[in-house]
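Fold this: Putative 3-oxoacyl-ACP synthase III
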Amino acid sequence: MDGSAIHLLAAGTVLPGPVLDNASLIRRFQLPAVWEQWIDTFVGTRQRHFCVDVETGERRQTMADLGETAGARAMAAAGLRADDIDLIVMGTATPDRLMPATVNEIAERLGIDRVPSYQLQSGCTGAVQALGVAWRMLRSGPERTALVLGAETSAKFFDLSADITDRPPAELINALLFGDGGGAAVLTKEPAPASPVLREVYVELAGLGRPPGQTMDWYGTAPADDDRSPVNEDYKTIEETVPKMAVEAFERLLDTLGWDETDVDYLLPPQLSGRMTRRITETLAVPGAHEVTLVDEIGNTGNAVAFFQLEHLLPRMSDGDRAIGLSVESSKWIKAGFALERS
């Protein structure tokens, strides 16, 4: 038995509020009916969940709410209590506040204290970065068990009072792509029946000389004398770049582990949108791998994505199965991934 092996015991997730499908979103913002077909054709995501009630503007849940629920579910699935957790790490692009860090608010609610605590500010690869920090700390330090979290509450950036009927698709794309959600996983040095081993975590900044593909200001509404949008996305550049980076991350993991692409039983591709995920999977072309994709039903939940995929993956894995998860962050271009193996 590998004494340095880090096992993935369990995952837990949460989605806020009711389902918001494309037709409901179009009615709410009084967009032309043709938009529903446009979303189906060019985005491919059918529905999502928001922490904000789009009819009233009421905030129903915060990121701390999502993290508390997801963390509690992951710990319960692993059969652990708060005093079993030696380390807590979170990745997010949309924390509740600058300070206190949302990860510490979540730890407070879960009863976790006197442990190393980290919050990573990052786009979609933040979950993999958080897994990497926990994985490396468990392998090299005295800590034995870590709670790793990822969550997004992007709907709070929407100005629900604005008239968006004349906005170009480039500005509306974020409301169509993203959904809110939270996820968590438990990593440990202690092996358990059927728990896969986290074999590798790969994170690489690849943004030198590349303009940002996405920018997001701290506040959802720009000042009255500023006509800039608080969230901007160069979707065309993202569409061209992300599949290539996903392939690069995939090949890097295979090379590091000495695996062949035919050794991969499950593929967890980036979940940008339904259409983009299909394009990425076609570009990867991994023969025989079962794809774990959820973006059509829950939207792009950013740093929660990997945990939704893991929650679906874990019950499916059999002895000898191998899985690779991939993620690309497009704000300043990070490619990342992780590999699991059930021995």
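The chain has two domains: 7-188, 197-341. The chain has a mean pLDDT of 90.
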